[in-house]
Structures are given as C-alpha cells and as structure tokens.
Amino acid sequence: MSLDLYAEDLVANYEHPHNRKNMSDCDSSSHEYNTTCGDDITVYIKVKDGKISDISFDGSGCAISVGTASKLTDAIKGKSVSEIESLGFDFIVDLIGIDPGPARAKCATISLKALKHAVFIYEHKKPDSETERL
Amino acid sequence: MVNIDSEEIKKDFPIFESRKDGQRLVYLDSAATSQKPRAVINAISDYYSNYNANIHRGVYQIAERATEAYENSKKEMAKFLGAESYEELVYVRNTTEAINLVALSWGEKNISEGDHILISEMEHHSNLVPWILLAKRKKAVLDYIKVGEDYRLDQESLENGLEKNPKLVAITHASNVLGTINDVKSITKKAHDKGAVVLVDGAQSAPHMPVNLSDIGCDFYALSGHKMLGPTGIGALYGKREILEAMPPVIGGGDMIETVEFYSCTWNRIPWKFEAGTSNIEGGIGMTPAIQYLQKLGMENIFKHEVELTKYALDALAEIKNVETYGPDMKKNDHGGVISFSVNGVHPHDIASIFDNYNVAIRAGHHCAMPLVTQILRQSAVARMSFYIYNNKDDIDKAVEAINEVKRIFKK
After folding, report:
1. Selection from B74, B129, B36, B6 nearest residue B275 by Cα
2. Cβ separation B347–A37 shorter than 8 A
3. Known catalytic residue: B368?
4. CB contact under 8 A, A3 and B366
5. Which residues of chain B are at the A interface, by a Cβ-Cβ cutoff of 8 Å?
6. ipTM of predicted assembly, 2 dp
7. Fold of B42-295
8. Per-residue pLDDT reduced to its tens digit, B173-203
9. Which residues of chain A carry a pLDDT beneath 70?
C-alpha cells in the first residue's frame, strides 16, 4: 500500500462528499455492501434521453469508498447509460489516479458497482459478469 | 522471573529477518494468528523430510516414529494445560471446530426444547454462531451475560442468567476485542452449582497466560494452535473424560472405530473416537516445539510482558487527541495484550492501510464479534493492535508514529 492512495483530493471528497443525498424521485437505485470494511453505499440515478441527468449516493464507509463515490458521482453526470455499461476497474484507477491494490479494490469499486446495477435495473437487463466481479 | 527479551526472541522467527523498503515487520496482529519460530517450521519440515508416514496404522519404523511424535504432542499439550490425561484432548482444526464439535455432539444429545444456554455479549462468532444454530434446531433459549460500561462482564447479569438454570454456560476466557480476561474459575464454580456444563473458549488465553484446567474446573476448553506459535489447521478440544466418553461421534470414518460390521460398528476409545480419517499429523507434530518454546519463556512471564506493553500503549494512546480505546482499565490485572481503538472520523480500514505503509500490521473490522462491536461499542468497525512475545516498546512507538500520520492525512 502506498500513501498515495490517500491523496488530499480523495480525503477532501471523503470529508465533504459531493452529491451525498437520498433521492426519493430517482428513476433507479442500487445498494451495495462490502463485508470486509462494512462499506454501505446506495447510488441513485435519474435518466433523460438515455443520459444521466442527475446522480447521488448515500451511505457510509471508509475514505476510499466514500471519497471515490463522491468523485464518481461528479464524473458521471451527462454520460450515456450505454457508456456506463462498459465502465470497469480501469475507470476507477483513472478517477482516483492510482491502483488501490487488492486489499482495497472493493472499497474503490463499490460505488461503480452500485451505479452499474442501477443502470442495468433501469434498462431491465441482467448485469454482465464484469460488473459482478467488480 | 525471566524478563522477556523481545529482540532476542525476534531472532528465532524467520519472518522478522525480511525487510520491506528497509523496514522490519512490526507485527501487532497476534490475536489473529501468531508468527512461527524456526523450531516449529523445522519440525514440520523434518517430519516430511525424514519420517513422513500415516499414524496409528503402519508397523514400520517411520510410521511408529510419526505416531509417537503426534501423540507426544498431545501429552505435551495436556501437561501445558494442566489436563489429567492426553486422552482428554481431541485434535481438531481450530477453536471454531472444537466448539462446533461440542454443539453437534454434546449439544444434540443434551439440549432440548426450552433449555437455556448462557453465553456473553463479548463472544467471538466461534462461541456464538454454533449456539444460535443449536438453539434454533432444538428450540432452546439463548441468554446473554451483558458487558458493562467498564468492558467487564456484568455480575448481576451473570447471576440473572444463572438463575434460569442453564444447561450450558459457554464463555470466553479472554476477549479478542476488549482484551478483558474473565474469571472463568469463579464462573465455572457458580455454573456448576446450578448444574450447568461449562465450556471455556481459550483461543485468546492459552497462548498468553498460565492456564490450569484442573484448577479452572471447566468441562470443555477450546484452543487454536496457530495463535500459540503452532501451525494453522490444528487446534484442540479438551473435555472431561466422563463427558467425552458419553458423547456420540460426529464424523464417522477410519481410525474412530473399534470394529465395523456391514450394518453396525463400535467406537474407538477417546480421544480417537472424535478424530476420523487421517489427522493433521504435521500440525500435531508442530505443536510440540511451539509449546516447548512457550514453556521455556514461562507463561507467567509472557503474561506480564504483554500487560506491560498494554499499559505502555494505553498511556501513549491516552496522550493522542481524538483516539478512543475500548477495554477495561489496567487496575484489576484482567486486561490482556489486546487494544481496540479508533480515531474519530477515520474508518478503521483506512487506519490499517496507513499503518501498512509503515510496515505495521494491525487488524481492522468487526473481529468476528459483530454483536459486540456494532451493538455494544456502537462502531461499524474498530482497529486493533495485539501483542505477543516478540513485540516490544519500539513496536508500539512505531504504531504511534503511524497514528500520527493518520491524523495528519485526515487533519484530525
């Protein structure tokens, strides 16, 4: 583990997360739980013309899971649902600027997994195997 | 009394020879598993290199030697624990399996609908889940001894639990989260007066303090070898002879029988009745040097050493703002070498990750005691440092340095 994982930017996103709210009028949502850290994240989305018009998350967890969820929700606004379907681990590495390593990978990907599940639910599709492995 | 010289002891453990980024491993997670001395590693290698054979079967020399080495380890362990005979020790995989064996054999036979089983709120899942399962199967009632605000067992709650005349009292000797050492001798006496059978979870006591089962008087005692310098996959269940003899076997197969006909069989003597199939021979053999190593140091000395380190660490942590610890005070000599802690506003897994950068290994999570951590401590997780013979004050200083880094990163 390198301390680079705890970049000031990520820690700031953990301390003051963006888009952290419950969204009762969302079009779809999905909840994920990470048993190792106890991270508990729900992602809510609104979709308009095939694109994410609004997104938020709620829940609690470690700095990696909450900080990444905050950054993810910022980055995802305006993206098309088909684009989100193809996002994987590499997207998270780009987003936080570092490979979190095997011990913390689940923390870093939990919000992406919840987002992708919410999208698949919206589209009445079954999640693909790559999403399930996140 | 011999002082524990941790620097000398470290030399007996190959893992401390390696360096990561120039830093030696600071291992503060012995409550999860201990490191292994060279003597244990060599004994296992010696068995496979020089006398590998199955036990209790062959009549050739290496088979006899293997059988003797395996059985001898039980004799060593019986002496170590103050058991009357090695026949009262069943080798199993670990504490969890030992307790499950009691639940599946003794419990199935002796627990009926409406019976009470008394355990405590500070139990590890290994001494909790088997009783939840048994209580469900038998429609029995599971009662809990409360943990008080001082992180000790609440005495009134214990008395109330005993008033219900439980059939079984199953209690941990030392908490893997709080470090609390329970007075299992007194609990056993009180429980026996009510006619209960008593099981003591010794996973965190056998490695760290003198244990004399004849003195404690409990009916069952469970331990894991890997927490006391031995290999993984070997543990022991102690049971009083007459109780073990009356218990039915749970797993059938080779070695646990006396005679087998096509439609019936008779059981082997204890402890073999409970050890079906080829045993973990290397595990048993590895326990002999582990126990000898501990005995050479002296369990009283080991306990004193760990208490001293715990005091030192608690004093250091008390100086740091925003750090909370969870465990009894050090006034009653009932707090072993475990400190659970948190840094306000920082998730314990982030603490453990930052510690890892200093090559300091600690554990973070619910420590397989979810009800205690989430409902009593009201935390989703806590960080934990635990001490053993190879730790010294320098290791704790390193941990304090890592905590200060946590505080710097999170501006706490």
Report:
1. B74
2. yes
3. yes
4. no
5. 345-347, 349-350, 353-354, 356-357, 364-366, 380-381, 405, 409-411
6. 0.89
7. Aspartate Aminotransferase; domain 2 (3.40.640)
8. 999 999 999 999 999 999 999 999 999 999 9
9. 1-2
